Amino acid sequence: MASLALKALPMTAFVCAPPTPLAPGRTLAAVLLAALLGLPTIAVRAQEGPQLNLQRVELTAGMHRIDAQVAASPQERQTGLMHRKEMPQHEGMLFVFEQPAQQCFWMKNTLLPLTAAFVDDDGTIVNLADMKPQTLDSHCSAKPVRYVLEMNQGWFAKKNIKAGAKLTGAPFSRK
Fold this sequence. Notes:
Jelly Rolls; two-stranded antiparallel sheet; 4 helices; disordered N terminus
């Protein structure tokens, strides 16, 4: 019964407190969930470095090209741009969710100041949020969205790209 309730919850990014390490490879969350479900515990290892080899997609914002890494799996979305010390100005990360929902992000273990663009299915930017490095402040979409594009902070402002602007690229062409 508990597993059905867990599966019914919408998937959002980074809304839970980070797990607390118990022993090498184990977390309190994994142990408690396994105990609740009556399952044996399994080793879970957190990502300790930046993820640099994700699939990429080319997006455009007006005449500006964006080379975006795609974070589509739960693990890729959870790690996001954590542990990155630098990122080229024309690069970003596109978080892709299975269905639209209110998406909320924080910046724990993220070293770069970023701006999150919460993006509708058709590529329209719903709202933008500037995010400070290494904080737990929650930054959420103004309405349910399937996509979030993170860029270096100031990128959108320098290009005069605001809420209501449209991004183009393969993810926004699907119907």
